TrEMBL record:
Pfam families: ADH_N, ADH_zinc_N. It comes from the Bacteria. Keywords: Metal-binding, Oxidoreductase, Zinc. One of its GO terms (molecular function) is metal ion binding. It comes from Dissulfurispira thermophila. The keyword Lyase does not apply. This is Sorbitol dehydrogenase. InterPro entries: ADH-like_C, ADH-like_N, ER, GroES-like_sf, NAD(P)-bd_dom_sf, Zn_alcohol_dh. Residues 7-342 form the Enoyl reductase (ER) domain.
Length: 348
């Protein structure tokens, strides 16, 4: 079977490897589509995993179930359309009981084999039981690829603790920023403001329901935000770009009593300097939002089923597996594109 393997940021190869042999409690899917995550085009983040088969947003059709599953009341059958999360928690530890799934040791050590951009994928027992979802028959595989990234946004907006009527500012309007725009009102936001420097993405945010956008290449970011909020600033700020300077801007942009969400990590050589009294006397909350858990993927599936988040809105480019490097480069460029997906044969 073909896989797309990254050896370095500038070296992505299409290789042939054997189809994985499943265990008694595992499943094998024939991959139908897989999204390319914006996190996978951060060189420092992805290269530490190399060599690695790219992709962690796959959907596919179950073509084989482990022999033991036929003797148990498994919800899955050969032929099912499924989404599989690349990590799955144990659901029993202290972290899982608190809903902090990403801190679960099992979550951190589970994976799909060999990766998402692969013609076939082995779903290990834990992933199959604890974070694999059957897709509705009416849902396209393209829509299914959006479950994992949508779930990350669901978690982000939950952690933001939006209050009814809040103003939310979303810094960075790539595909994850656009998903925040699409979902913010579902969590209670009244006014949605987006900020970016790419006109294509600013226009998309307005199309998807943002009330205002700020072109940071042409306008003073803070002054414009003051104008849009009557000097109040934003109750909630989502910081998308992976930089400490963007995080600093997010702190400057939040209103007293508000919350700043760091949605993406900073580069490893950066440090964030904070005046603790500035934070303290303004009662500013700083929270992080890393990946997602099973509760979030289930909620994401519902939002996609309702048509709030769809591939029709967000998928701008489609590629065959042989074109993975081209898709990867387009995603890394972060210009006139949103979501790139890799397709495998018939998508329906």
């Amino acid at each position: 079977m073909k896989v797309a393997k990254l050896y370095s940021f500038s070296d992505i190869r299409i290789e042939d490897i054997p189809v994985p042999q499943i265990g008694s409690y595992d499943a094998l899917i024939k991959t139908k589509a897989c999204g390319i995550c914006s996190g996978d085009v951060m060189p420092w983040y992805i290269e530490k995993k190399a060599p690695v088969v790219l992709g962690h947003e796959p959907v596919g059709e179950i073509v084989e179930l482990g022999s033991a599953l036929y003797h148990y009341n498994t919800p899955f059958s050969v032929g099912d359309k499924v989404f599989v999360h690349h990590h799955a928690p144990c659901l029993n530890c202290k972290y899982c009981n608190r809903g902090d799934y990403v801190q679960c040791n099992t979550w951190q050590n589970t994976k799909i084999i060999p990766g998402g951009i692969s013609e076939y994928i082995l779903i290990p027992e834990t992933n199959l039981k604890n974070d694999t979802l059957k897709l509705p028959e009416t849902m396209s595989y393209e829509d299914g690829t959006l479950i994992e990234p949508t779930a990350c946004v669901v978690k982000s907006l939950k952690r933001a603790s939006i209050k009814e009527g809040d103003t939310i500012l979303i810094i960075g309007l790539g595909v994850m920023g656009q998903m925040h725009v699409l979902l913010a009102r579902e969590f209670g936001a009244k006014k949605i403001i987006g900020a970016d420097m790419i006109q294509f993405r600013l226009n998309k945010a307005l199309e998807f329901g943002a009330d205002h956008v700020i072109d940071i290449s042409k306008e003073n970011f803070i002054d414009r935000l003051k104008d849009l909020t009557n000097n109040f600033m934003a109750d909630i700020v989502i910081v998308g770009p992976n930089s400490a300077s963007a995080m600093q801007q997010g702190i400057k942009a939040v209103a007293s009593g508000g919350t700043v969400v760091f949605f993406t990590p900073a580069r490893p050589d950066e440090m964030l300097t904070i005046d603790p009294n500035y934070i303290y006397f303004r009662d500013i909350n700083i929270v992080t939002s890393y990946s997602c858990g099973p509760d979030d993927t289930k909620k994401a599936l519902r939002f996609i089923s309702k048509g709030i988040v769809t591939a029709g809105k967000l998928v701008t480019h489609r590629f065959a597996i042989e074109e993975t490097e081209k898709a990867y480069r387009l995603t890394a460029k972060a210009k006139d594109s949103l979501k790139c997906i890799i397709e495998f044969g018939d998508r329906q």
